[in-house]
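Help needed: design a sequence for this.
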């Protein structure tokens, strides 16, 4: 039962307590973000208007979001949006939730592509594109860049197209619904860069992931096989036939996989490899050139 009226401050305290009781990380901020979303307010507004009373309908609408979060549904699915590379991206259930760690892959890809002439068309392939964050963010940053974004999931493909439109890059992002390996096996195209954030979690580690991940996010985007390296083994040998002479590739990796993926790239004929650490000092990206 809800009180007839409840202030913003009272509702936030009650929501925080409820989320804490369900072991939701960062409970206070989660409660604030959901209330901003529910009321259409900025964070500052919550505190400027903290004594404002809310009617039962608005309290009930907000509490539906709180209950979803208490069940450990990802906050991004509840809000329907997230920020990546300072750009807005829609997020939908059934599609992998963007992680801030992937920004490092985009930053390094940007550096890799900048030496190419900016007055000529530049083609990049984004495999396992998910919500499209890698390709769309790069297309937003590099005006002559065209991206082919490939994913097996129709939900992911639709979301990538929507995010390209949302960020003014729809005409330069081509979305292909296909298995990444099958796509490379049939296409004759070559690219300046191939980028990929594949499934790389070891199968035995999936049960230990946070509930938000293991109960809500697609296993297709997570399960990398017994040692997490199945996708890399299958895809890397196909890359040399699809890169231009100066082309490069870059993967996101698990923090113990740098040496193994680098060895696979060298075995496929890449002359140079580099493992890039994230801001926590962990291996996060492998580059082959």
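Sure. Designed sequence:
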């Amino acid at each position: 039962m809800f009180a007839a009226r409840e202030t913003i401050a009272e509702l936030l305290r009650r929501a925080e307590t409820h989320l804490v009781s369900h072991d939701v990380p960062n409970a206070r901020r989660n409660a604030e973000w959901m209330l901003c979303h529910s009321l259409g307010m900025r964070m500052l507004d919550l505190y400027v208007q903290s004594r404002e009373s809310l009617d039962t309908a608005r309290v009930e609408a907000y509490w539906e979001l709180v209950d979803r979060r208490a069940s450990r549904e990802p906050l991004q699915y509840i809000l329907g949006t997230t920020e990546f590379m300072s750009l807005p991206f829609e997020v939908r259930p059934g599609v992998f939730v963007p992680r801030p760690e992937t920004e490092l892959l985009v930053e390094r890809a940007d550096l890799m592509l900048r030496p190419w002439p900016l007055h000529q068309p530049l083609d990049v392939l984004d495999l396992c594109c998910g919500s499209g964050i890698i390709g769309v963010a790069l297309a937003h940053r590099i005006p002559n860049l065209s991206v082919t974004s490939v994913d097996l999931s129709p939900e992911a493909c639709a979301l990538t197209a929507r995010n390209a439109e949302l960020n003014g890059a729809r005409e330069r992002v081509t979305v292909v619904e296909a298995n990444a390996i099958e796509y490379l096996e049939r296409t004759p195209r070559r690219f300046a860069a191939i980028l990929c954030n594949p499934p790389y979690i070891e199968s035995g580690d999936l049960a230990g992931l946070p509930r938000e991940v293991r109960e809500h996010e697609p296993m297709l985007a997570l399960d990398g096989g017994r040692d997490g390296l199945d996708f890399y083994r299958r895809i890397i040998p196909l890359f040399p036939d699809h890169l231009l002479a100066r082309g490069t590739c870059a993967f996101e990796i698990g923090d113990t996989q740098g040496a193994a993926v680098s060895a696979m790239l060298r075995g496929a004929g890449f002359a140079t490899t580099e493992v890039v650490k994230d801001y926590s000092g962990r291996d996060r990206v492998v580059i082959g050139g």
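The domain at 84-288 is CATH 3.40.50.150 (Rossmann fold).
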